[in-house]
TrEMBL record:
Transmembrane region(s): 6-23
Coiled coil spans: 30-57
Pfam family, any one: DUF2897
Keywords: Coiled coil, Membrane, Transmembrane, Transmembrane helix
Taxonomy, superkingdom: Bacteria
Protein name listed in UniProt: DUF2897 domain-containing protein
Organism: Colwellia psychrerythraea (Vibrio psychroerythus)
Length: 57
């Protein structure tokens, strides 16, 4: 391998690893209340029911 190929490969690996580390650092958990969780579960159940109804047709 030439020195140019090695530099390009190292640069590509560095960009990928750097991107992953930035994503990891900027990620955070959602702090949802019990009411919000209940709303999400209710909405998901409604959507599942609608999907089942559409598949039956």
């Amino acid at each position: 391998m030439s020195i140019t190929a090695i530099i390009i490969t190292a640069l590509a690996i560095g960009i990928i690893v750097g991107g992953i580390l930035v994503l990891k650092k900027s990620a955070h958990k959602f702090n949802l209340t019990a009411e919000q969780l209940a709303d999400i579960k209710k909405r998901n159940e409604e959507l599942d029911k609608e999907e089942k109804d559409q598949q039956k047709k």
